[in-house]
Protein backbone atom coordinates (compact mmCIF):
# COMPACT_ATOMS: atom_id res chain seq x y z
CA UNK A 1 0.00 0.00 0.00
CA UNK A 2 1.41 3.37 -1.05
CA UNK A 3 0.45 6.20 1.28
CA UNK A 4 0.35 9.94 0.72
CA UNK A 5 0.16 12.46 3.57
CA UNK A 6 -1.21 15.99 3.50
CA UNK A 7 0.71 17.97 6.12
CA UNK A 8 4.11 17.88 7.75
CA UNK A 9 3.44 18.14 11.47
CA UNK A 10 3.77 15.78 14.41
CA UNK A 11 1.43 13.06 13.15
CA UNK A 12 2.95 13.08 9.66
CA UNK A 13 6.43 12.72 11.13
CA UNK A 14 5.24 9.89 13.39
CA UNK A 15 3.78 8.02 10.40
CA UNK A 16 6.92 8.45 8.29
CA UNK A 17 9.13 7.10 11.07
CA UNK A 18 6.77 4.26 12.01
CA UNK A 19 6.11 3.06 8.46
CA UNK A 20 9.21 3.89 6.44
CA UNK A 21 11.92 3.66 9.10
CA UNK A 22 10.60 1.20 11.69
CA UNK A 23 8.55 -0.79 9.12
CA UNK A 24 5.51 -1.19 11.36
CA UNK A 25 3.34 -1.78 8.27
CA UNK A 26 5.19 -4.40 6.19
CA UNK A 27 4.50 -3.96 2.50
CA UNK A 28 3.43 -0.33 2.94
CA UNK A 29 5.32 2.88 2.32
CA UNK A 30 4.72 6.60 2.73
CA UNK A 31 5.37 7.42 -0.90
CA UNK A 32 4.79 11.17 -0.89
CA UNK A 33 3.70 14.18 1.14
CA UNK A 34 1.92 17.39 0.22
CA UNK A 35 3.26 20.58 1.80
CA UNK A 36 2.38 24.18 1.02
CA UNK A 37 5.86 25.68 1.43
CA UNK A 38 8.62 24.71 -1.05
CA UNK A 39 11.38 25.15 1.56
CA UNK A 40 9.60 22.72 3.90
CA UNK A 41 9.11 20.25 1.05
CA UNK A 42 12.84 20.39 0.25
CA UNK A 43 13.71 19.73 3.89
CA UNK A 44 11.36 16.71 4.04
CA UNK A 45 12.94 15.17 0.95
CA UNK A 46 16.43 15.61 2.41
CA UNK A 47 15.46 14.29 5.85
CA UNK A 48 13.20 11.36 4.99
CA UNK A 49 13.88 10.61 1.33
CA UNK A 50 10.15 10.86 0.63
CA UNK A 51 8.90 12.74 -2.39
CA UNK A 52 7.38 16.06 -1.35
CA UNK A 53 4.99 18.08 -3.50
CA UNK A 54 3.62 21.60 -3.36
CA UNK A 55 1.16 20.91 -6.19
CA UNK A 56 -1.89 18.87 -5.19
CA UNK A 57 -2.53 17.40 -8.64
CA UNK A 58 1.05 16.17 -8.85
CA UNK A 59 0.80 14.75 -5.33
CA UNK A 60 -2.36 12.80 -6.20
CA UNK A 61 -0.69 11.49 -9.37
CA UNK A 62 2.35 10.14 -7.49
CA UNK A 63 1.13 6.53 -7.44
CA UNK A 64 -0.47 6.60 -3.99
CA UNK A 65 -3.41 4.40 -2.99
CA UNK A 66 -4.60 6.20 0.12
CA UNK A 67 -4.28 9.75 1.46
CA UNK A 68 -3.93 10.73 5.12
CA UNK A 69 -5.04 14.27 5.93
CA UNK A 70 -2.80 15.33 8.83
CA UNK A 71 -3.10 19.07 8.48
CA UNK A 72 -6.10 21.27 9.28
CA UNK A 73 -9.86 21.61 8.92
CA UNK A 74 -9.16 23.96 6.02
CA UNK A 75 -7.19 21.23 4.23
CA UNK A 76 -10.22 18.92 4.43
CA UNK A 77 -12.47 21.63 3.03
CA UNK A 78 -10.02 22.46 0.25
CA UNK A 79 -8.90 19.00 -0.85
CA UNK A 80 -11.15 16.17 0.35
CA UNK A 81 -13.49 16.24 -2.63
CA UNK A 82 -10.56 16.35 -5.05
CA UNK A 83 -8.90 13.38 -3.33
CA UNK A 84 -12.09 11.33 -3.55
CA UNK A 85 -12.69 12.37 -7.17
CA UNK A 86 -9.32 10.77 -7.99
CA UNK A 87 -10.64 7.51 -6.48
CA UNK A 88 -8.24 7.61 -3.54
CA UNK A 89 -9.19 6.34 -0.11
CA UNK A 90 -9.00 9.12 2.49
CA UNK A 91 -8.18 9.16 6.20
CA UNK A 92 -9.40 12.36 7.88
CA UNK A 93 -7.83 13.47 11.15
CA UNK A 94 -9.30 17.00 11.24
CA UNK A 95 -12.82 15.69 11.73
CA UNK A 96 -14.11 19.14 12.67
CA UNK A 97 -14.60 19.82 8.96
CA UNK A 98 -17.32 17.16 8.84
CA UNK A 99 -19.54 19.12 11.22
CA UNK A 100 -20.58 21.04 8.11
CA UNK A 101 -23.61 19.03 6.91
CA UNK A 102 -23.24 20.22 3.32
CA UNK A 103 -19.61 19.09 3.07
CA UNK A 104 -20.42 15.82 4.82
CA UNK A 105 -23.28 15.20 2.39
CA UNK A 106 -21.20 15.98 -0.70
CA UNK A 107 -18.37 13.71 0.40
CA UNK A 108 -20.75 10.90 1.30
CA UNK A 109 -22.45 11.08 -2.09
CA UNK A 110 -19.15 11.29 -3.97
CA UNK A 111 -17.84 8.22 -2.15
CA UNK A 112 -21.05 6.36 -2.99
CA UNK A 113 -20.77 7.24 -6.68
CA UNK A 114 -17.09 6.33 -7.00
CA UNK A 115 -17.00 3.35 -4.65
CA UNK A 116 -14.34 4.79 -2.36
CA UNK A 117 -14.28 5.42 1.39
CA UNK A 118 -13.35 7.97 4.05
CA UNK A 119 -11.96 6.69 7.34
CA UNK A 120 -12.16 8.59 10.63
CA UNK A 121 -9.64 7.35 13.22
CA UNK A 122 -10.92 7.07 16.79
CA UNK A 123 -8.38 9.65 17.90
CA UNK A 124 -7.83 10.25 21.61
CA UNK A 125 -10.85 8.29 22.86
CA UNK A 126 -12.16 4.73 23.06
CA UNK A 127 -15.54 3.06 23.11
CA UNK A 128 -16.53 4.09 19.59
CA UNK A 129 -17.09 0.44 18.69
CA UNK A 130 -19.79 0.25 21.38
CA UNK A 131 -21.39 3.52 20.26
CA UNK A 132 -21.37 2.44 16.63
CA UNK A 133 -22.80 -0.99 17.41
CA UNK A 134 -25.54 0.50 19.58
CA UNK A 135 -26.54 2.73 16.66
CA UNK A 136 -26.95 -0.23 14.28
CA UNK A 137 -30.68 -0.20 15.02
CA UNK A 138 -30.76 3.36 16.31
CA UNK A 139 -31.19 2.18 19.90
CA UNK A 140 -28.84 4.60 21.62
CA UNK A 141 -30.51 6.93 24.12
CA UNK A 142 -27.80 9.05 25.73
CA UNK A 143 -24.15 9.89 25.14
CA UNK A 144 -22.14 12.21 27.38
CA UNK A 145 -18.49 13.24 27.24
CA UNK A 146 -16.59 14.89 30.08
CA UNK A 147 -13.18 16.20 29.12
CA UNK A 148 -10.81 17.25 31.89
CA UNK A 149 -7.69 19.23 30.98
CA UNK A 150 -4.87 20.97 32.85
CA UNK A 151 -6.10 24.49 33.58
CA UNK A 152 -2.99 26.17 32.22
CA UNK A 153 -3.25 24.50 28.80
CA UNK A 154 -7.01 25.05 28.51
CA UNK A 155 -7.38 28.57 29.93
CA UNK A 156 -3.85 29.90 29.70
CA UNK A 157 -3.89 30.53 33.44
CA UNK A 158 -4.00 28.64 36.70
CA UNK A 159 -7.13 28.27 38.84
CA UNK A 160 -7.37 27.41 42.52
CA UNK A 161 -10.17 24.86 42.12
CA UNK A 162 -11.51 22.88 39.18
CA UNK A 163 -13.73 24.96 36.96
CA UNK A 164 -16.44 23.83 34.54
CA UNK A 165 -15.73 26.04 31.56
CA UNK A 166 -18.41 24.54 29.33
CA UNK A 167 -21.53 22.42 29.61
CA UNK A 168 -23.87 21.90 26.68
CA UNK A 169 -24.15 20.09 23.36
CA UNK A 170 -21.29 19.04 21.12
CA UNK A 171 -22.52 21.57 18.55
CA UNK A 172 -22.04 24.40 21.05
CA UNK A 173 -18.71 23.01 22.27
CA UNK A 174 -17.32 22.90 18.75
CA UNK A 175 -18.06 26.59 18.16
CA UNK A 176 -16.52 27.67 21.49
CA UNK A 177 -13.55 25.30 21.68
CA UNK A 178 -12.70 24.39 18.06
CA UNK A 179 -9.11 23.36 18.87
CA UNK A 180 -9.93 21.25 21.91
CA UNK A 181 -12.94 19.15 21.00
CA UNK A 182 -12.10 16.76 18.13
CA UNK A 183 -13.05 13.91 20.45
CA UNK A 184 -16.60 15.26 20.78
CA UNK A 185 -16.96 15.44 17.02
CA UNK A 186 -15.93 11.87 16.25
CA UNK A 187 -18.05 10.65 19.18
CA UNK A 188 -21.05 12.55 17.79
CA UNK A 189 -20.54 11.25 14.26
CA UNK A 190 -20.42 7.67 15.56
CA UNK A 191 -23.51 8.12 17.70
CA UNK A 192 -26.39 10.53 18.18
CA UNK A 193 -25.04 13.53 16.32
CA UNK A 194 -23.69 16.82 17.61
CA UNK A 195 -27.02 18.22 18.80
CA UNK A 196 -27.80 15.17 20.96
CA UNK A 197 -24.35 14.55 22.45
CA UNK A 198 -23.70 16.18 25.83
CA UNK A 199 -20.28 17.69 26.51
CA UNK A 200 -18.68 19.05 29.66
CA UNK A 201 -15.21 20.59 29.69
CA UNK A 202 -13.41 20.98 33.01
CA UNK A 203 -10.25 22.97 33.77
CA UNK A 204 -8.46 21.09 36.55
CA UNK A 205 -5.51 22.65 38.44
CA UNK A 206 -4.40 19.19 39.61
CA UNK A 207 -4.50 17.52 36.19
CA UNK A 208 -1.26 16.78 34.39
CA UNK A 209 -2.78 15.18 31.29
CA UNK A 210 -6.04 15.16 29.33
CA UNK A 211 -8.77 12.83 30.58
CA UNK A 212 -11.88 11.82 28.64
CA UNK A 213 -14.85 10.09 30.27
CA UNK A 214 -17.59 8.72 28.04
CA UNK A 215 -20.94 7.47 29.28
CA UNK A 216 -23.63 5.95 27.08
CA UNK A 217 -27.05 4.41 27.68
CA UNK A 218 -29.16 2.41 25.24
CA UNK A 219 -30.94 -0.85 24.59
CA UNK A 220 -27.55 -2.61 24.83
CA UNK A 221 -27.13 -1.52 28.47
CA UNK A 222 -24.73 1.07 29.85
CA UNK A 223 -21.14 2.00 29.10
CA UNK A 224 -18.67 4.06 31.10
CA UNK A 225 -15.08 4.48 29.94
CA UNK A 226 -12.27 6.71 31.18
CA UNK A 227 -9.06 7.46 29.31
CA UNK A 228 -6.03 9.33 30.62
CA UNK A 229 -4.01 10.31 27.59
CA UNK A 230 -0.25 10.68 27.54
CA UNK A 231 1.11 13.18 25.00
CA UNK A 232 3.47 12.44 22.14
CA UNK A 233 7.04 12.23 23.45
CA UNK A 234 8.13 15.12 21.19
CA UNK A 235 4.94 17.22 21.24
CA UNK A 236 2.91 17.73 24.44
CA UNK A 237 -0.01 19.20 22.47
CA UNK A 238 -0.72 15.96 20.57
CA UNK A 239 -2.18 12.84 22.17
CA UNK A 240 -0.05 9.75 21.56
CA UNK A 241 -3.21 7.65 21.28
CA UNK A 242 -4.51 9.95 18.53
CA UNK A 243 -1.39 9.30 16.46
CA UNK A 244 -1.55 5.56 17.17
CA UNK A 245 -5.18 5.48 16.01
CA UNK A 246 -4.13 6.76 12.58
CA UNK A 247 -1.49 4.05 12.29
CA UNK A 248 -4.09 1.48 13.36
CA UNK A 249 -6.54 2.74 10.73
CA UNK A 250 -3.90 2.27 8.04
CA UNK A 251 -2.97 -1.16 9.38
CA UNK A 252 -6.58 -2.33 9.01
CA UNK A 253 -6.38 -1.63 5.27
CA UNK A 254 -3.70 -4.32 4.94
CA UNK A 255 -5.30 -6.99 7.14
CA UNK A 256 -7.41 -9.85 5.80
CA UNK A 257 -9.09 -10.46 9.15
CA UNK A 258 -10.16 -7.33 11.00
CA UNK A 259 -11.70 -6.73 14.41
CA UNK A 260 -14.57 -4.28 14.84
From TrEMBL:
Positions of the Aspartate dehydrogenase domain: 160-247
Residue ranges annotated for the Aspartate/homoserine dehydrogenase NAD-binding domain, each copy included: 7-121
Reaction(s) this enzyme catalyzes, per UniProt: L-aspartate + NAD(+) + H2O = oxaloacetate + NH4(+) + NADH + H(+); L-aspartate + NADP(+) + H2O = oxaloacetate + NH4(+) + NADPH + H(+)
This protein's pathway: Cofactor biosynthesis; NAD(+) biosynthesis; iminoaspartate from L-aspartate (dehydrogenase route): step 1/1
InterPro entries: Asp/hSer_DH_NAD-bd, Asp_DH, Asp_DH_arc, Asp_DH_prok, L-Asp_DH, NAD(P)-bd_dom_sf
Entry annotation: catalytic residues: 212
Stretches that traverse the bilayer: none
Molecular-function annotations in GO: aspartate dehydrogenase [NAD(P)+] activity; NAD binding; NADP binding; oxidoreductase activity, acting on the CH-NH2 group of donors, NAD or NADP as acceptor
Job description of the protein: Specifically catalyzes the NAD or NADP-dependent dehydrogenation of L-aspartate to iminoaspartate.
Organism listed in the record: Brevibacillus nitrificans
Binding site for NAD(+): 124, 182
SUPFAM superfamilies, sorted: Glyceraldehyde-3-phosphate dehydrogenase-like, C-terminal domain, NAD(P)-binding Rossmann-fold domains
Family the entry assigns: Belongs to the L-aspartate dehydrogenase family.
Protein name: L-aspartate dehydrogenase
Amino acid sequence: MKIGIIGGGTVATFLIKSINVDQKLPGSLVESVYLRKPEVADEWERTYGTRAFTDMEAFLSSGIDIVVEAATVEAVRDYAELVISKRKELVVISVGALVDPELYGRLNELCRQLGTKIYLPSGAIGGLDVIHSAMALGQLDEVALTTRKPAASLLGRQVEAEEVVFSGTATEAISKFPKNINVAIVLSLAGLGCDQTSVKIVADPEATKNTHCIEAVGSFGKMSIRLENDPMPDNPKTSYLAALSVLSTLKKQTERITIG
